[in-house]
Amino acid sequence: MAIQVYGFWRSIASFRVRVALKLKGLPFEEIPVDILSGQQFKPGYEDVNAERVVPTFIHDGYSLFQSLAIIEYIEDLQPEPPLLPHDPKERAYARSLALTTVADGHPLITPRVRNHLAKTFAADAHAVESWSGHWTTEGLATYERLFARRPPAPFALGEAPGLADICIAGHAIAAHFLKLELTAFPALARLAERCFALPAFATSHPFEQPGYKAHALR
Amino acid sequence: MAIQVYGFWRSIASFRVRVALKLKGLPFEEIPVDILSGQQFKPGYEDVNAERVVPTFIHDGYSLFQSLAIIEYIEDLQPEPPLLPHDPKERAYARSLALTTVADGHPLITPRVRNHLAKTFAADAHAVESWSGHWTTEGLATYERLFARRPPAPFALGEAPGLADICIAGHAIAAHFLKLELTAFPALARLAERCFALPAFATSHPFEQPGYKAHALR
What we know:
2 copies of one chain form a homodimer.
Chain A: E1 3-7, H1 12-24, E2 29-32, H2 45-48, E3 56-59, E4 62-65, H3 67-77, H4 88-105, H5 111-121, H6 125-149, H7 163-177, H8 186-196, H9 199-202, H10 210-217
Parallel strand pairs in A: 1-2
Antiparallel strand pairs in A: 1-3, 3-4
Helix pairs in contact in A: 1-3, 1-7, 4-6, 4-7, 6-7, 7-8
């Protein structure tokens, strides 16, 4: 089984796919696409990904896009260890938690949105950072309200990390990029800490990717 | 089985849930939450939905949020007729198509985003409409590129309408709200037309909801 992932060190959606593959113990090759310099718009990549975004997941020639669809496919491909609970209500809750950042928090702070704000509203770096901070904080607050009702024990759905934790850890990375304090969100902060204590999460972190290391050396 | 949906006539995410329930033949009661006037921020609704958005799905006292998680739960609850293919690759493609609008196109044009643009960047109605038009057109173009590779036959995944069609029809509604021409996106336009020829889609359309009719009479 040959798996390739077109990804980018800073991409939180790429992070999610990386963690899922590592939790499943599936080896993969990552092909970097520098979405900050616009490599996704170069001829050729559109044939790989019609949306011109990362990640793209390639499995024995079968190509797939959208991180959540990719992770659900990985779950079908390799059911153990499960990333989603078997109980339908629990599975639905896991997906709801995932979508809170995948469909609400994260889409608002991607490079294409930040670039479009700068272009359309002449937003400077500070204004773009405030915009991103606002939406990321909204997500943090939603998670904290949810965790007040059902505390992670110790992961979002129980004893083992899964889809929800992967997405929430990605949200914590966004907060970290934006230098947001997590002190007002202690349950989320503890959950993220627990995730990053695991090698699958720690080694998938943007700052652990070769692309970041090359970038930091520049 | 008692199902209630907190929704809003204009909400595209509420539309998605409505169609799914109708395709499954599951009766439900819709409780309107006027997200244009800010009813979702009133005390009480946060207890129903920690994110303070619509839709919220209640099934015999079990509460669930995020339209895609809700539809997957409905699929688990009532497997026939299937809204997702059984083949893992096909199921993954259906989810990818759904997420193209759920996680990329739609989050950028919700009322809370439009309001925040107005507040933060002093964007007037025209600027907000341009913003929404830009992202909705990006989504239309992505779908058209995908359909050029794999034409709907006649629905996105084959003979029967499912999750992907529901989400794409919702994207077509957004385009309609924004008065965008679909002539440059003929495959998507045909797919949407086929969807809205079905009662489950037609009767779920925002303009067919009691809330819209009351609004239009004002």
